[in-house]
Amino acid sequence: MTRAQASGAVAVCVALGIGVRPVHAQTTPPTQSTQAEKPKTSVLPLTDEDRKAAFPAVDGHTVHDKSIHYFVLFDQLEWQNGRGGRSLSIDSKAWVGGDRDRLWLRAEGEAEGTKTGASQAQFLYGRAIARWWDLVAGVRQDFGGGPGQTWAAIGLQGLAPYWFEVEATAYVGQSGRTHVRLETEYELLLTNRLVLQPLVEVELYGRAIPERGIGRGLSTSGVGLRMRYEIRREIAPYVGVSWERKYGGTGDFARAAGDPAASARFTLGLRTWF
To answer: How far apart are CA 19 and CA 11, in angstroms?
Structure first.
């Protein structure tokens, strides 16, 4: 096509309203943004008010170390039946005080019919000396089963490794008499409500106390095994067995009085606390 013919063709297209693109025009590719668009988010930036709400000013850690609390436990409230006869037995403890300083009451005893057997009550002051241990000191009064006697007491109680509850107490009485008592128990949770509780206790005396039927040295040992069902944590009936052995002079005093030196008993009782 000659230049004149091309010019004529263009003129015809213009006259008809048809757009003409130059032959040598080149399309430019769409440009891409050099920066990626920022993702949209609904999280607002932190402000000083937010930080104050999350970390309020605290004047002191709130604890109850200055508050007075109390606890009463009847660990054994039971009926016993065995070779030595039938009897009622009680073993209880209570405390009142704060986190570190408390007043303790321990009471235990037994009765056969209308006759009160060997019983005792202890009034102790306890001071927490470690995370799981208390040092206790005070007095103990014996009554029933012979003439009454007063003792000074000092001991250690708490939770040993593997969750063994331990009480170790030494006593000094009239005429330089001495007595040491060791007791430990464990609570094995078979289910959330069924608990097996073994207990072991040992007593030693430095001197004989004939009027109370106690000999010198290793006096008695006892083993108990009780299975309780917690209707509520505070109320748990139980059944079990206990075995007691009297040694040396204590065994001789028991046999002279017509009692066995060793006996096993069936127990039925209630454990409760508040």
So the answer is: 11
Question: How is the chain classified by DSSP, letter by letter?
Answer: --HHHHHHHHHHHHHHT-----TT--PPPPP--SSPPPPP--PPPP-HHHHHHHS---SS----TTS-EEEEEEEEEEEEEETTEEEEEEEEEEEEE-SSEEEEEEEEEEEETTEE-SEEEEEEEEEE-SSSEEEEEEEEEEESSSS-EEEEEEEEEEEETTTEEEEEEEEE-GGG-EEEEEEEE--EESSSSEEEEEEEEEEEESS-BGGGTB-SEEEEEEEEEEEEE-SBTTEEEEEEEEEEEE-HHHHHHHHHTT--SEEEEEEEEEEEE-
pLDDT higher than threshold 70 for residue 18? no
Lowest mean pLDDT among 26-30, 153-157, 196-200, 238-242: 26-30
Does residue 150 carry a pLDDT above 60? yes
Question: 124 or 20: which carries more pLDDT confidence?
Answer: 124
Q: Which pLDDT belongs to residue 202?
A: 98
Cβ(123)–Cβ(104) under 8 Å?
yes
CATH topology of domain 69-273: Porin (2.40.160)
What does the domain layout of the chain look like in residue ranges? 69-273
Give mean pLDDT, residues 154-176: 96
Q: How many CB atoms lie within 10 A of CB 8?
A: 12
The pLDDT assigned to 5 comes to 53
For residues 55 and 140, what is the distance between their CA atoms, to the nearest angstrom? 52
Can you give the pTM of this predicted structure?
Answer: 0.75
